[in-house]
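// run 5 | inverse folding | seed 20
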């Protein structure tokens, strides 16, 4: 299929006097817009260091649900008074430069296509686009230093190549999916950090720390042997502070955190030969942001450990370990993989949702990757739509795809998995549902040496009780990610242009600017299995699922691909029919 737009991009860059927008004034859909309709404001004039951009497409994201429900209480809004200082949702946006401030004329030009990386930081503080910075549900707005001059410089990504507007917008959620399989965990002791080594009086084993002990600034030793203390003192660099706190019980942990870390937690925690799951459950509460939790031992714990799942996803808390006497063997990428196993078996839990579908599609389109993918979802309609959508892709890539609905079966997912997988557990499990008990149950699907990926924005404090003994005894991986980086999104854009990735296949419904509120509601209720894309420049078309597009707009529907897939040609027909309709 041709990727040429012909006259698709030949849209005039004249600037209207007014723009439609959907501001958010508080929690709930009723506080978006005015009386259920978009507002009208003048189109602003860019300053010398600003761009005036046209918003061409916006993807609705489930991450927006938390913003809509919480309003100013959302963590990325820092208790903002939205009534007097509104924001806008819409962090998945495709833009075109319309007018350039004089100081930016050597970098940008009218007609230039941009994608935006919304996870923006100023002075290491999140000021995300679509959250702190009002997002893309507007026809025209200004972009300035808040985006163009942040911690990593410029957070817009100019690109060449024939991507549709929908495809450009969806490079952001796809970047989040790709980021889930890149190494985000810290896999070495933190330089200048605080390490706590907790041993046991019953364990007098001779441990080594072959590398990494020169990193911490402070090391706390608790209930370790004299030989271990001597080993540590022989490997630290001059100036490292050694503290000894002995006769430790779980009830002492909070006090130690307050005394040593000012309640910020330890950057690195090492447990030597623990047995008590209760002790481990208390110790994990003391992991700092981006901290590592390293268990070294060769005996299983006496029960499951209670872990805050949200911290794995949002704080990148890292669980590592090994069963040797060398503590340092737990670290490093060789032992801690981050991508799917070649020729392995993958289970995606929550596969019928928009992000679950992306994980399934990525696994199938991988040149190597898993040979067998099990897509699990309790929504039969979504699962059926996924099956219709994904089967042709699986056949083209010679991958086996199986579908399972645990709510419609008399067997469990683990029984189904073993039945189709030679009585073995999965090499990889990805969970896209932010429910603690479901995450907990899904962890039991992971084989030794397997990887468990939390790709679900579980609320802070969401606990799961899991047996983590396999992490140190059998090299099991426990990971989770949130968001993406500029490099992740650049990689997705390039892979899309090169034909290695197809974000456009994620589109399930489209609508014009007036349909944005319906798009948000559809996203919140899970009406569509794939992504909802709003075209702010288009008026006159309600939110319409691609599966029923033929009923009202046959001239657009005839341009769809197999199984009603969105295409460049369909988008071109949409643009020609509705763009700037008066």
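// decoded
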């Amino acid at each position: 299929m041709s990727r040429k737009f012909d006259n698709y991009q030949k849209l005039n860059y004249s600037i209207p006097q007014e723009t439609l927008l959907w501001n958010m004034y508080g929690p709930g859909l009723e506080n978006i817009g005015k009386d259920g309709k978009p507002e009208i404001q003048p189109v602003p004039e860019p300053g010398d260091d600003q761009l005036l951009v046209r918003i061409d497409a916006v993807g609705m994201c489930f991450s927006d649900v938390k913003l809509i429900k919480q309003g100013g209480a959302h963590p990325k809004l820092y208790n903002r008074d939205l009534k007097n200082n509104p924001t806008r949702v819409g962090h998945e946006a495709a833009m075109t430069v319309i007018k350039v401030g004089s100081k930016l004329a050597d970098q940008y030009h009218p007609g230039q296509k941009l994608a935006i990386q919304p996870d923006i930081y100023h002075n290491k503080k999140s000021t995300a686009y679509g959250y702190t910075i009002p997002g893309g549900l507007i026809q025209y707005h200004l972009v300035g230093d808040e985006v163009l001059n942040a911690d990593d410089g410029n957070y817009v990504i100019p690109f060449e190549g024939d991507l549709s507007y929908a495809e450009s917008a969806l490079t952001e959620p796809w970047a989040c999916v790709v980021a889930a399989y890149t190494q985000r965990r810290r896999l070495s002791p933190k330089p200048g950090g605080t390490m706590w080594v907790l041993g046991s009086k019953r364990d007098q084993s001779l441990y080594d720390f072959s590398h990494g002990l020169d990193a911490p600034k402070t090391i706390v030793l608790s209930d370790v042997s004299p030989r271990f203390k001597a080993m540590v003192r022989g490997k630290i660099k001059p100036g490292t502070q050694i503290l000894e706190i002995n006769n430790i019980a779980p009830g002492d942990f909070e006090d130690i955190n307050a005394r040593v870390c000012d309640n910020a937690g330890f950057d690195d925690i090492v447990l030597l030969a623990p047995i008590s799951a209760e002790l481990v459950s208390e110790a994990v509460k003391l992991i700092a942001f981006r901290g590592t939790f390293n268990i070294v031992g060769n005996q299983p714990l006496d029960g499951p450990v209670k872990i805050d799942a949200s911290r794995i996803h949002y704080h990148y808390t890292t669980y590592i370990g090994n069963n040797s006497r060398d503590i340092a063997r737990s670290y490093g990428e060789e032992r801690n993989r981050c991508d799917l196993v070649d020729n392995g078996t993958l289970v995606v839990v929550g596969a019928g949702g928009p992000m679950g579908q992306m994980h399934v599609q990525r696994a199938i389109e991988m040149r190597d990757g898993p040979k067998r993918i099990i897509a699990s979802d309790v929504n039969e309609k979504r699962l059926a739509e996924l099956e219709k959508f994904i089967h042709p892709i699986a056949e083209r890539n010679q991958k086996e795809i199986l579908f399972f609905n645990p709510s419609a079966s008399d067997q469990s997912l683990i029984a189904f998995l073993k039945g189709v997988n030679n009585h073995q557990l999965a090499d990889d499990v990805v969970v896209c549902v932010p429910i603690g008990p479901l995450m907990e149950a899904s962890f039991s699907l992971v084989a030794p040496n397997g990887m468990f990926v939390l790709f679900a924005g579980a609320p802070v404090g969401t606990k799961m009780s899991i047996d983590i003994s396999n992490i140190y005894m059998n090299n099991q991986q426990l990971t989770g990610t949130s968001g993406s980086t500029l490099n992740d999104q650049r990689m997705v854009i390039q892979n899309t242009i090169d034909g290695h990735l197809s974000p456009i296949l994620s589109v399930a419904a489209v609508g014009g600017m007036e349909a944005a509120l319906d798009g948000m509601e559809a996203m919140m209720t899970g009406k569509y299995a794939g992504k909802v894309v709003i075209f702010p420049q288009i008026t006159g078309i309600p939110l319409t699922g691609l599966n029923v597009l033929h009923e009202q707009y046959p001239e657009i529907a005839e341009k769809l691909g197999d199984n009603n897939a969105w295409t460049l040609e369909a988008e071109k027909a949409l643009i020609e029919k509705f763009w700037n309709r008066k």
